[in-house]
Amino acid sequence: MAPAPATARCGAGIVTAPGAAPGSDRQPQPQPRGKRQRLAAELRRLRDLAGLSGRELAARLGVSQSKISRIESAALLPSLPDVEAWAQAADASGEDFALLRELTREAFTEVHTWRARAKALPDVNEELRSSDVHAEALFNLQLAVIPGLLQTAAYARRIFEIFVTPCPPEEVAALVAARVDRQVTLYGEQRLEFLIGEGALRTRYGPVPDQLAQLDRIASLTTLANVQIGLIPHRHQGRTVAPHGFLLHQGAQQEDTLVTVEALHGQLHITDPDSIGLYRRHWDLLQASALTGADARAFLRQIITEIGEQTS
After folding, report:
1. DSSP for 177-209?
2. Nearest Cα to 33, choosing from 73, 89, 78, 82?
3. Number of folded domains in the chain?
4. Model confidence at 295, in pLDDT bands (50, 70, 90)?
5. Are residues 175 and 257 in the same domain?
């Protein structure tokens, strides 16, 4: 799949995580920036100063050499105990210990602003695909907008046009094409689960025919074997408070699991195991209130009928 040909220079051009999809295994690993990248650089510096090879450090820590390489390339964010053990093995100073602890805490809840990421990344869509290629499953909660993987081209275009940082008209077409192109993952084997609030289904971002076409598309996708779409009606009693949506990338191991939360100012990346556990529990509670399968399709038909009657 080809990435968007132009760099995304607007906020909405970067809000592609809900619709991001795996690329091929030959795609490069994502290149994290900010605190996470600095942490990786500091750890490598300490290893070099200690005169240790990656193999020697791995032996001291009781881990694989590949894990050392992934940490130093910023492809893997180590836990605080991992960082402290690394520093101890490299005979780090007290000052270095303090810096590493600070960088680790900040890296676990790093915010990537839309504007900063647009300037820093030559191709944000490529980064998102690369981060998802290692996910065994994706869990996507959206309360105000349809998830990107499920969007029609017309719906996606309107979202890009009206986002808090609107896209220039000359970039919208390329961004819409990239989003639609990534939807090929819907027909693969990766496990994809979605929870959509009724508000997202009823909110009209464009002409009524576009909204009805979007709801029809969701109904058709509920029949895919690897996809589960849950709809949360307003009439169901809430089991928890959902202040915002999120996307959980579930990796084969805990260290490969990531939660992303989209806010108006940017995207929050969460890799702390305790925080990820909180999002998992939140998902389970919300899922218990959702309609799936035939019930979800019946609910969509009801909304489609109501919208048709209101506009006739």
Report:
1. HHHHHHGGGGGSSSEEEEEEEHHHHH--SS-HH
2. 73
3. 2
4. very high
5. yes
Question: Is beta strand 109-113 parallel, antiparallel or unpaired with respect to 266-270?
Answer: antiparallel
What tokens appear for 263 in the block?
A: 């806010």
Handedness of CA 307, 144, 207, 150 (dihedral sign): negative
Name the residue with tokens 């077409």: 173
Domain that holds residue 174: 110-311
**Burial letters for 168-194: b for 16+ Cβ neighbours within 10 Å, e otherwise?**
eeebbebbbebbbebbebeeeebebbb
Instruction: Note whether 201 and 74 are same-domain residues.
Output: no
Dihedral over Cα of 149, 145, 266, 137: its sign: negative
Residue 13 inside a domain? The answer is: no
Q: 137 in helix, strand or coil?
A: strand
Name 269's bridge partners. 110, 260
Report the share of the chain in percent with pLDDT over 90: 52
221-240: pLDDT as tens digits: 999 999 999 999 999 999 99
Amino acid at the residue 158: R
Last residue of a domain, one of 107, 129, 146: 107
Residues 84, 135 share a domain: no
Residue 9 resides in a domain: no
